[in-house]
Structures are given as structure tokens and as C-alpha cells.
Amino acid sequence: MRIALLGGTGDIGQGLALRFARDTDHEILIGSRDPEKARDAVESYEAELEERGVEANIKGFANEMAADRADVVVLSVPPYHVADTVDAVADSLDSDTILVTPAVGMQGDEDGLHYHPPGTGSVTELVAERAPDAVPVVGAFHNLAADALSDLDTDLELDTLLVADDDDAKTTVRNLATEIEGLRALDVGPLANASEVESVTPLVINIAKYNDDLHDVGVKFK
Questions:
Q1: Fewest C-beta atoms under 10 Å: which of 73, 83, 160, 222?
Q2: Domains within the chain, CATH numbers bracketed
Q3: Of 198, 177, 200, 174, the residue nearest 187 (C-alpha)
Q4: pLDDT digits (tens, 9 = 90+) for 11-68
């Protein structure tokens, strides 16, 4: 399977790229608005994985080209770039492509971060609204600490919460997520429940802000 990480040069993209490349046999496509930046990121990821004895299957492309080649496309971009990114790659998506979004709308002040969803109710629902009609959208990977994800010396014992209206797409992403060592994927229902999932992200960031021993805090349900 080919997994494209659009904005794969950023924190969450780096973490997912390294984890998928180390823990799975899937081909990883790093996307960026600047294809040279994507290729530079690939070289960096390959070098880190090579030091750990992993022969990575990673390539770098412009976002549109990465999306066109992928079975699963992850929008690992900041929330304020999500709509524009979907619009830019829309012609590269079809009913056989699963679109995944981990983005969360937040605003910060001196007290911490606060959930700030768009008018659609959640970033996940915004993606579904902007994506071509036949393209299934899955919300996943929202509440993972990027630093922990990108540090391969950190053992993950975390849950990621999934929302989608398409059960087959959700199952595919759930299976992919659980291939990452130490990550469990839990079904939280349809896209209408995305705001509840997304709102957990500022909560865990604020826990990390106010507790020195919980820098890379995540969620685990028992």
C-alpha cells in the first residue's frame, strides 16, 4: 500500500513517516508544496532509519503527485492549510483513495490552548465538505504528541481515535494505525463525533504544559 503524507516535512508528518517506514512494509510518499523540500526530508528520514538498520521505502514529491500515487492520503498539515491543500489535490483523489486528517483547530493564550473548530463543527468535517464527493474521509492521529511520535527511542503505548462515515475506509485506517508499534486504534463512530475527538488535543497539550513529567502526554483508554 502507498501512504502519502502531505505536508510530510512537518512534525506530525515526520513522526508518521518514521513510524510507518520502520514498523510496516508500506511505501511512504512525502508530499510538500515544494518537491525539493520533500526530497530533502526523505534524505533526512532515510539517514535516521539507516542508523537503526532500517532500509526505508520513502520517496518525495509535490503534494499533488504524492496524492495521485497513493492509496491513503494523510493531511499532515496545520489546520489553516487543510482546506487549501484539499483543493490543491482534489483532482488527484478518487473513490479508491482514503483521505485522512489529524488536524485540530486551536487558539492559544497565556493560559494554554483552547479548542477552536471551524464553522463546520470540526476540521475533519471541513475536510469531508471540501473533498470530492466519492472520496471517503477518516479522522485519525489527532491526539498524538508529535515529539514522541518522531522520537523512535520513545515506546508508544497510546490510543488514536477514529471517526468516519465509511466503515470500509475506517477499517483500512484502523489496520494501518495498529501496524505502528504501541498504537491502538479505537472506533468513535461517524464524522459527526469528530469535534469530541479533536477537542482532546488541546486538553493533552495543556496537561503537558502544566506537568513537567508529562511532556509527551497522550491518551490510553482502559
A1: 222
A2: 2-210 (3.40.50.720)
A3: 174
A4: 899 999 999 999 999 999 999 999 999 999 999 999 999 999 998 899 999 999 999 9
Q: pLDDT digits over 69-95, tens only?
A: 999 999 999 999 999 999 999 999 999
Name the pTM for this structure: 0.94
Cell 491513503 locates to: 72
Dihedral angle sign, alpha carbons of residues 201, 206, 209, 215: negative
Residue 139 CB coordination number (10 Å): 31
Rg (CA), the chain: 16
Distances (CA, A) of 182 to 19, 55, 142, 157, 179: 10, 21, 16, 5, 9
**Phi, psi torsion values for 187, nearest 5 degrees:** -80, 125
Helices then strands, counting H and E runs in the chain, come out as: 9, 10
- Residue 127: what are its φ and ψ, rounded to 5°? -60, -45
Pair 132, 171: CB distance under 8 Å:
no
Q: What's CA 59's distance to the chain center, in Å?
A: 17
C-alpha cell recorded at residue 38: 520533500
Nearest Cα residue to 76 out of 142, 157, 152: 142
DSSP3 helix / strand / coil % (the chain, rounded to 5):
45, 20, 35
- CA-CA distance, 69 to 92, in Å (whole number)? 8
Percentage, residues of the chain above pLDDT 70 = 100
